[in-house]
Design a protein that fits this description.
The protein is α+β, with helices and mostly antiparallel strands. It is built from 4 helices and 5 strands, in the order H-E-E-E-E-E-H-H-H. The longest helix is centred in the N-terminal third of the chain and has 37 residues, at about 5-40.
C-alpha cells in the first residue's frame, strides 16, 4: 500500500526537525569547545608556560605561573577548575590573549577542550538514529563522541 501524501509530509517533517535538533546540538558543542580549543590549537605566538597549582576555589584554581622566556613568574594566575586540575601539580598552559586566564596546553589540553563536542556527539546520536532513522550514522556519531570522551579521560 502506498503512503498518503500527509504521511509522507509528516515523515519528511519529522526528519527535518530531527536534523535541526541534531545540528543545533553539534553546533552548540562545537561552539563551546572552540572557546577553549582555539587557544590550544592556534597557540603559535601566544604566551606559553607552566602553572604550579597552589590553591583551588569553587570555580577556579590558581598558582604560580612561570612563562617561557624573559617575563618573570607571577603568582595568582587563574585556571578553570575541573577534574583535570589538582592542587600541588604542574601543568603546561597557554595564556588567553587579553586576559590573565590560562588554559591547559599540549595533547591533554586539546582533548579536554573538545569534551563538550564529545558530549554533544553522544547526545545527537539517539536523535540521528531514532528521529532520522539513520542507524549507521548514529553509531558513528556515538562512537566518535565516546572515543573523544575516553581519550580525554585517559589524558587526565
Amino acid at each position: 500500500m502506498k503512503p498518503s501524501s500527509s504521511q509522507l509530509a509528516l515523515s519528511v517533517g519529522r526528519r527535518v526537525v530531527m536534523a535541526c535538533v541534531a545540528g543545533l546540538l553539534l553546533v552548540a558543542g562545537f561552539w563551546t569547545s572552540w572557546d577553549t580549543a582555539q587557544h590550544v590549537l592556534l597557540s603559535k605566538g601566544r604566551e606559553h608556560g607552566t602553572l604550579s597549582v597552589t590553591e583551588c576555589g569553587d570555580t577556579t584554581c590558581s598558582g604560580t605561573y612561570d612563562p617561557e622566556g624573559p617575563p618573570p613568574p607571577r603568582a595568582g594566575a587563574p585556571i578553570e577548575r575541573s577534574v583535570a586540575v589538582k592542587k600541588g601539580r604542574e601543568y603546561e598552559v597557554v595564556l588567553k590573549p587579553g586576559t590573565e586566564e590560562l588554559v591547559r596546553a599540549g595533547s591533554s589540553g586539546v582533548l579536554l577542550a573538545w569534551v563538550p563536542l564529545g558530549g554533544a556527539l553522544l547526545l545527537a546520536a539517539p536523535v540521528v538514529g531514532g528521529g532520522m532513522r539513520l542507524t549507521r550514522t548514529a553509531w558513528g556519531t556515538a562512537l566518535a563522541g565516546a572515543a573523544l570522551l575516553t581519550g580525554a579521560f585517559f589524558a587526565l
